[in-house]
Amino acid sequence: RDADGRRVFDLTMQRGRTDLGRPDPTPTWGVNGSYLGPTLRANRGEDVLVNVTNELGEDSTLHWHGMHLPPEMDGGPHQTVANGATWSPTWRVDQPAATLWYHPHPHGRTAEHVYRGVSGLFLVDDPAAAALALPKKYGVDDVPLIVQDKKFDGSELDESDAPFRNQGILGDQVLVNGTPGPYLDVTTERVRLRLLNGSNARIFNFHFADDRPYLLVGSDGGLLPEPVEVRSLELSPGERAEIVVDFEPGETTVLRSAPLDSSEDRAAGADDRFDILEVRAAGRLTASPPVPRRLAPAPDLGGEEVVTTRRFTLSGSSINGDDMDPERIDVVSEVDTTERWIVTNDNGYPHNFHIHDVQFQVETVDGDDPPPAYQGWQDTVLLPDRAEVALLVRFSDYTDPDTPYMYHCHLLRHEDQGMMGQFVVV
Ligand code: C2O
Ligand code: CU
Ligand code: CU
């Protein structure tokens, strides 16, 4: 902590080499190390200060994905951290407990910076969530899993795209927290897994090899209103989920990714299967309390008067026919009013849609009530081939007519190609 009582984090984006199971160490990028970065953690109500030093050898940025904060602190394309410089954003954390993350956002180069390894988790805690009987011993029964697919050329990361592929890089190998072929030793009856799809383009469809049910307890913006039993869960790039899984003493299973339910586009990886993580339960397991039936207040924007409805059509690599222009403001939103954002995927392959600064409520998916996975707050939503979602969005606290936030497809190649727009809150 500094003299003002702020929680201080020092992060250095740097280059290195990492053992990723190849013949030689792989040239990679990371934060305070050679691949990925530390998990940051702060309480609701706390002031934080992050010193971000860039030693990458080229300009970048560091964005706090899912965080509610002023636009100058956001780490988007307008907050360049020049090579050799230090940028020190500060803000008050004020949102429900959630699994957020950070990653670079330099315009046109986000895909390569994230792919090389610059990202990490940012966990928000709050007293209400801390009081719940959910697994919460970090690294023991509360385990973060940053899931990323990679392609290699020998020992190097392969950044080339296959021809005719719209999505950007799809790998044929999965890393979890930067580890190839990972396993997890379980010592408790229940384990919370915090899943981040930290890939560039890959959509995962998480299920267990024995098809066991598990409880979905959290989404992008924090805990769901109540746990939902599922057997599979799709997460598109940038999305997070928290699940709680039961284990029997001595058993072994594998967390896998199955072919997608939402898409048939083979070029988008819809047919691919991966083993993600082997889970090995000890012969004796420490007892875990049952998962509470009520977790958090449900999103409540449905009862608000909608003052503005906006439409966003994702097509090719643009939104409403326009590529991102850093000089153009696409949307001006009024603070503390509720808007409906209707987002349509006009293509026969998947996109997704992410809005900075805010957690939104998914009102409908193709005109129906949202699926269980989208009954909490989201900052990123999957848009399957030709889908349409309606989002209820309400910006609060921070107004600035001059500094925009971003909305964009989080398939990083699309984002870099300009499938992104800018909004200000006034
Ligand atoms: Cu996770 Cu604008 O990004
Ligand atoms: Cu973001
Ligand atoms: Cu896209």
TrEMBL record:
Residues covered by the Plastocyanin-like domain: 25-128, 315-426
UniProt keyword terms in alphabetical order: Membrane, Metal-binding, Oxidoreductase, Transmembrane, Transmembrane helix
Signal peptide, first to last residue: none
Family to which this protein belongs: Belongs to the multicopper oxidase family.
Name of the protein in its database record: Multicopper oxidase family protein
